[in-house]
């Protein structure tokens, strides 16, 4: 198969994996209502499913002996996701919502509305997770992803989820379970597994044809493709009036990627072959939620991101690309 056919397989597999995640999301949304979780706490809970394609990809890459694809996917998706989803959410929120005076205030001030609680519930704990990954993987004596690191990161996600639920618990609702949706969830789980296999298989073949390293393929092929379908979900959720949920879910997804998706790569022991590439990417993984936290903290009465701050997110990603092209990969 030539490279264009594998690109087609990659796109179809990515959509299949995210379709599967959408089907699995329904029962978890019902549990969120039943347990009375707020938007921020619910995002942390629902991320178990919304980030499942990334987790499945890393399980597949570890099983197939191409862990560098999974490592690149882990880093690449976490770098692009925040600037991309925040930008999409900003444009999707530029409309009036009926009977929502608070949103109208944000619209008049040209801000992307955001609940300040999301910093304490999601972004600061996510920064702690990134710092923990750095401590476990960067020192020379501990360099690389090892089984003990994986168990530590699983414990870190358990703490992250527990913290989010405790911080964001309200009175629950009665919900009715639909058998059809439950069966669709089963089909969704199968689609995620199948999609993940073909995403990894397609990436293997594309990097082979293009003669690039597996980790670079994971960064710029797998990582971007697994994030792309989230554009439409974020747009839809925010356009529907759930601005905070649509904007904060990306933080929760990234926390799952850096912990649960970290586990299979650590379990098979993934060495860091290119240390400069790894630490530069990890630095930008940390920069994005740091900007997120600082900007929300700076907001006064109306919490959220200004147009200028949205531009800074996008500019940070452009700086990342330039750093990779000219200083890390040295393509020019």
What would your notes on this structure say?
This protein is mainly alpha-helical and 332 residues long. The protein has one domain: A middle domain of Talin 1, CATH 1.20.1420.30. Helix content is 78%, strand content 2%. It contains 14 helices and two strands. The chain has helices spanning 3-35, 39-50, 52-63, 67-92, 101-108, 117-137, 147-167, 179-210, 214-227, 230-239, 243-259, 262-267, 275-298, 307-328, and strands spanning 111-113, 304-306. It has a two-stranded antiparallel sheet. 47% of the residues are buried. The mean pLDDT is 86. Residues 7-165, 182-325 form the Sodium/calcium exchanger membrane region domain. It is a multi-pass membrane protein. InterPro entries: NaCa_Exmemb, NCX_ion-bd_dom_sf. One of its GO terms (biological process) is transmembrane transport. Its main location: membrane.
Number of helices: 14
Helix and strand composition category: mainly alpha
Spatial order of strands in the largest sheet: 1-2
Oligomer: single chain
């Amino acid at each position: 198969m030539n490279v264009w056919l594998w690109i087609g397989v990659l796109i179809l597999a990515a959509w299949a994996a995210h379709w599967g995640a959408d089907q699995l999301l329904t029962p978890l949304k019902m549990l969120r209502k039943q347990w009375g979780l707020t938007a921020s706490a619910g995002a942390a809970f629902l991320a178990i499913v919304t980030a499942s394609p990334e987790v499945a990809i890393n399980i597949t890459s570890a099983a197939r002996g191409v862990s560098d694809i999974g490592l690149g996917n882990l880093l690449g998706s976490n770098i692009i996701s925040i600037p991309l989803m925040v930008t999409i959410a900003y444009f999707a929120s530029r409309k009036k919502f009926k009977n929502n005076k608070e949103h109208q205030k944000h619209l008049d001030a040209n801000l992307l509305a955001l609940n300040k609680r999301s910093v304490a519930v999601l972004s600061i704990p996510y920064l702690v997770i990134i710092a923990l990954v750095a401590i476990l993987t960067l020192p020379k004596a501990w360099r690389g992803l090892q089984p003990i690191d994986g168990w530590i990161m699983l414990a870190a996600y358990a703490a992250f989820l527990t913290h989010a639920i405790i911080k964001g618990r309200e009175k629950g609702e009665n919900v009715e379970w639909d058998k059809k949706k439950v069966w669709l969830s089963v089909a969704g789980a199968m689609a995620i597994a199948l999609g993940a296999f073909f995403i990894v298989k397609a990436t293997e073949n594309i990097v082979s044809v293009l003669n690039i390293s597996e980790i670079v393929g994971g960064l710029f092929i797998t990582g971007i493709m697994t994030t792309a379908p989230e554009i439409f979900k974020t747009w839809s959720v925010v356009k529907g009036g759930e601005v905070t949920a649509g904007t904060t879910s990306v933080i929760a997804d990234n926390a799952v990627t850096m912990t649960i998706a970290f586990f299979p790569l650590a379990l098979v022991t993934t060495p860091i072959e290119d240390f400069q590439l790894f630490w530069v990417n990890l630095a930008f993984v940390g920069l994005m939620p740091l900007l997120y936290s600082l900007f929300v903290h700076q907001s006064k009465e109306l919490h959220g991101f200004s147009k200028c701050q949205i531009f800074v997110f996008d500019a940070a990603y452009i700086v990342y690309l330039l750093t990779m092209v000219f200083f890390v990969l040295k393509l020019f």
